[in-house]
Amino acid sequence: MAPVPPADPAPRPATPPSPPWWRDRRIVPWVVQAVVGLLVLLLIAFLLGNLIRNLTAAGLLLSWRWLQQPAGFDISESVIPFNAQLPYWRALAAGLVNTIRAVLVGLVGATLLGTLVGMASFSHNGLLRRLARVYVEVVRNIPLLLQLVFWYFVVFLTLPNGLAAIQLPGVVLAKSGLYIAGFGEGLRWMGPSLVNEVWQAPLRLSVEFGALLTGLIVYSGAFIAEVVRGGIAAVPKGQWEAASSLGLSWFATLRRIVLPQSLRVIVPGLNTQYISLAKNSSLAVAVGYTDLYSVAETTLNQTGRAVEVILVLLAAYLTLDLLISALMNGLNHLVQIRER
Amino acid sequence: MFRTRTRSLVVSLCAAGLLAGCAGDGGGVQSQKLSTITGRGKLICGVEGKLPGFSFVGPDGKYLGLDVDVCKAVAAAVLGDPEKVEYRDLNSSERFAALASGEVDLLSRNTTMTLSRDAAGGNGLSFAPTTFYDGQGVLVPVASGIKDLKGLAGKPICVESGTTTELNLADRMREQNIPYTPLKFQTSDQTFAAYLGDRCVAVTSDRSQLAGKRTSFPKPDDHTLLPVVMSKEPLTPATTNGDPAWADAVRWIVYGLMQAEESGITQANVDAKLAEAKANTNQADLRRFLGVEGDFGKQLGLPPDFVVKAVKAVGNYGEIFDRNVGPASALKLDRGLNRQWKDGGLIYSPPFR
Amino acid sequence: MNALLRRLRAELFATPADGALSVALIMLLSLGAFGFLRWALTQAQWAVVKVNSTLFAVGRYPIEQQWRLWLLTALLVAASGATWGLLRAHPRPDRTGVLWPRNDRLALVLLALIALALPSALGLTLAIQTRWWGLLLLLALCRWLAGRFGANLSSTGRRLAALVWPLLYLVGMVLISGGLGLVTVSPSEWGGLLLTLLASSFAILLCFPIGVLLALGRRSELPLLRWGSVLYIEFIRGAPLITLLFLGQNILGFLLPGGLAPERVWRAAWVLTFFAAAYLAEAVRSGLAAVPRGQLEAARSLGLSYPKALQHVVLPQALRVALPAMVGQFISLLQDTTLLSLIGLLELLGTARTVMANPAFLGRNGEVYLTLAVLFWGCCAALGLSSRALERRLDPHAVPSAT
Asked: CA angle, C130 as apex, C126 and C132 as ends, to 5°?
């Protein structure tokens, strides 16, 4: 580097001449904002104007009365009771509950699978380590929708039916679903039984639900495994060495020393994955599971209320995301290391 | 162009000012849609696209079927060329929005006419004459031994979501108090794939559709239609309430196809008939119908000889039926309710006068 | 040999528990592999893929116009070969230029195997097989020419050569959709891999500028811009893609004056673009956050205007940091195109579903989905690999100061 030449010795005037207004740093930002804001407002006004005009022409101006009318269609598996005479909002609620059910079970499953695979990628066993890698690389590079239809049409729909179903004590896996023993009417213990060529059991999961869950868990599991792996890798190597010098086994080291410390890196990453799992559950429509999106689509078709239905959908998913985010933020607060 | 732009700007400004009563200009006699179509030079027609006999893509990549022929007839009548049609495949849940938003000019997609779809307070459609009277049926494997709806108790039934079929199924089963599990799919492809994959013991849809699909099964004789008709399904082309003049034009083009059959005018003899009408001033009915006399075309905003053009393009209603779903097709459906009223059917065109 | 054994032992049989685990895993794996091979070789009927290979490739694109796609493929292959060669002719400053490094030779052999084996495996006619070989030769030729003589190219020449790609994109659009004297092929006739690649490349190209603007907006000091960007990004990221596609198909027609709404295919492509832009903005934002504030201040104090400082100082550094995340977004965008099948468009998965509706191929789900999975995996893995290669090339720490 050559020495910096001395600055121009000419004395500066005491007060610099004020710049022209288009370069004035007090004015320009406000002008920019005003212009952008005006453009956006005009665009919104233009779109809304068209919307109102087109909806008026089609006789579909915003109204929510249809929510009270009977839906007229049935839902095959609903956690809250539903039949065709109940109003649309009940149908949408049933769909939302179905979505939440899939998301909750999916979250637990994907977290378990992801954690196991993430841990496996630090195993001493080279084969296990590589398998974990292969799983992540394969699953992440294949579209979820493709995986879902694969699980449904190739795996679950080729299950045997009726008497040929896979029968284990208390559990039957057939083409129509998974049947699990439980307490039936009058709190009597009941196992799965074949009545009129149809399996019956207190606890029944349809194959549609099964396919959706499997797809979501396997897919999100791969992403969560990466998050967990990153978290574990962020824990200093010295922690491993210290633990093993204390005589702790590999698993105990991981469980008692490394994982707890890695949580503060893992939890924020999990938040993103959980939200995308919740959003991905809307792909249920491809495998015939009646989730919120599926009910909304049917509703749109019966009522023609496109704008209202999409508003309901967006509001529901945004709320779901916010809920997950709030919960995860709370959790994040808990796992952060409090330094004195 | 300029005028529409300023108007939309005015409307937008109205909306911006939250002026609620801004309903645009009232419906004039002149059809906006018709001038849009003639300006564009082609008709955009919404069809199912994968339904043998009604609308599907042939091996040469061209659309075929009864619903498609209605599109062609309208294109021929309006634009003078049956090939000036752009087809849009619509699934059952997006068809009404596509029509309402103006994405398609005409919906010719085995759509059942119902009160709520017609009513201004409902879907706000405007229906043309019914082109196919159908009923809902149930298809089951012969091996299942199921003979009636009661046999379906507690069993899964495949159905396409968002259809009247789905609603009728719910109604019929509730009436007879039969519990069942509806398995809903977005498209008819998936619905039938699940049925053939043995996921359901039955599939329900319009009888014509079941018959059409069954012909394409690997072993058609292994499946049988239950002898129940669960509903009336008048499959009808539709436009929107927003443009009555356009709806009228479509309505009378379709009536023209039906009247042509009644009057014995076919694709082959339409030119001869036209020459006859021109030569013989006593044939008042025929002269009016074929546009030699009177101004019916003008009243609808169509060319005077719109019927001639439509029939020349696709033939009369009977020919369309026979070619696509009747004896000359793979479906081999009986005319049944779709006979002319003179033969005891429901096809009846009001007089052209 | 001994070294190999020792390594195997350390990796698989270090402790008895490890050994048991390894044996169990090996048994499971071989069982799975055996079952799969038995299915693939004896039970699977691959005719469904062979017979419909054209449908999977281009959908219902008119046969008499398909020469345009072949021409486009040839142009793309030539451009790829030339680019590849140029990269080797101008190696990183720390590397000596080798015309055919080992990886390149390997890649060429792999491509040659694909070009020789795949067409005959698909049962394509000899005429089409020869076209594949021709494409391979073209690739090798362009690669060699550019590698051999590319070093003579001045830096302006290289910059101009990079312009070939956007130009090719425009040419490609004309070739695909028609116009300028070519017969128009409407978007409703595009399908299969063609539509998948077109939709994803369109969205990738356009989401990039929008995403960068959004990221800058989110970090802007102007409250209106900041909150506008935040609102947009969070809204889009909160909604499932399918609801947005649904919005595009069902509501866009209402939002625009009648008849102005674009074709369904374009509508979906725009929705994909605006969707991806929000995610890309977040990737770019993380890159921007990694650039020290001092960089902007230093650039400004040197007299650069704000846009100039962004363009020459901040963005290049930020984008380099954001590259892996951005490519991750592109990969998921490519995967997200499968959702177009849910709104009735016939991209790869949509084509697959119509093919399986054909009664002749009923129940051949396994064969078709497996083929699609391999295709997608290949495309995504290739994107990931090239991103890593690009990262290494751009890594400032790998370049010793050139004095």
From this structure: 120
Q: How far apart are CA B158 and CA B198, in angstroms?
A: 10
Phi, psi of C101 (to 5 degrees): -65, 170
Q: Does C157 touch chain B (CB under 8 A)?
A: no
Alpha carbons C322 and B298: distance in angstroms, whole number? 65
Does B179 contact A at CB distance below 8 Å?
no
Q: How far is C148 from chain A (nearest CA, A)?
A: 35
Task: Tell me which of A48-57, A151-160, B289-298 is least confident.
Answer: A48-57
Check C22 against A51: CB less than 8 A apart.
no
Contacts of A285 in chain B (CB under 8 A): 186
**A50·C255 Cβ contact <8 A:** yes
What residues of A are in contact with residue B92 (Cβ under 8 Å)? 301
* Residue A221 near residue A109, CB atoms below 8 Å: yes
Cα–Cα distance for residue pair A190/A206, rounded to 1 Å: 18
Decide if A128 and C256 are in contact by the 8 Å CB cutoff.
no
- Taking phi first (over 0 means left), then psi (-120 to 50 degrees means alpha), and beta for anything else, what does residue A306 get? alpha
Of the residues A40, A56, A140, the best mutation for testing chain C's interface (the one with the most C CB atoms within 10 Å of its CB) is: A140
Q: Which chains touch A (3 or more CB pairs under 8 A)?
A: B, C
Judge whether B96 is closer than 8 Å to chain A, CB to CB.
yes
Residue C91 C-alpha, separation from nearest chain A C-alpha, in angstroms? 27
A216-244 residues labelled b (16+ CB within 10 A) or e (exposed):
bbbbbbbbbbbbbbebbeebeeeebeebe
ipTM for the assembly: 0.87
Q: How far is B283 from chain A (nearest CA, A)?
A: 42
Q: Are C265 and C185 in contact (CB under 8 A)?
A: no
- Cβ B89–C344 below 8 Å, yes or no? yes
- Selecting from A73, A161, A303 the residue whose C-beta is nearest the C-beta of B198 gives A161
pLDDT in tens, A124-159: 888 899 999 999 999 999 999 999 999 998 888 888
Closest CA to C340 of C271, C260, C256, C259: C271
Residue B92: what residue type? S
As a whole number of Å, the end-to-end CA separation of chain B is 37
Q: Does the beta carbon of C16 lie under 8 angstroms from any beta carbon of chain B?
A: no
Q: What radius of gyration, in Å, describes the C-alpha atoms of chain A? A: 29
Which of B135, B177, B171 shows the shortest CA–CA distance to B152?
B177
Contact partners, residue B201, CB within 8 Å, separation at least 6: B140, B141, B144, B146, B152, B155, B156, B157
Question: Residue A110 has what pLDDT?
Answer: 96
Put simply, the answer to whether C381 touches A36 (Cβ < 8 Å) is: no
Rounded CA-CA distance A301/A299 in Å is 5
How would you write the pLDDT of chain C (403 residues) with one tens digit per residue?
678 888 888 777 777 888 888 889 899 999 999 999 998 888 888 888 888 888 888 888 888 888 888 989 999 988 888 888 887 777 665 556 667 777 788 888 888 888 888 888 877 788 888 888 889 999 889 888 888 787 777 778 777 878 888 888 888 888 888 878 788 887 878 888 999 999 999 999 999 999 999 999 988 888 888 898 999 999 998 899 999 998 888 888 788 876 666 778 888 999 999 999 999 999 998 888 888 888 888 888 888 888 888 888 888 888 888 888 889 899 999 999 999 988 888 889 988 887 876 667 777 888 899 999 999 999 999 888 888 878 877 776 654 444 3
Q: What is the DSSP string of B261-301?
A: HHTT--TTTHHHHHHHHHH-TT-HHHHHHTTSSS-HHHHHT
- For residues C35, C38, C40, C42, the Cα torsion angle rounded to the nearest 10 degrees is -150
Closest chain A residue by Cα to residue C250: A306
The pLDDT tens digits for C116-144 are 888 888 777 888 888 888 899 998 898 88
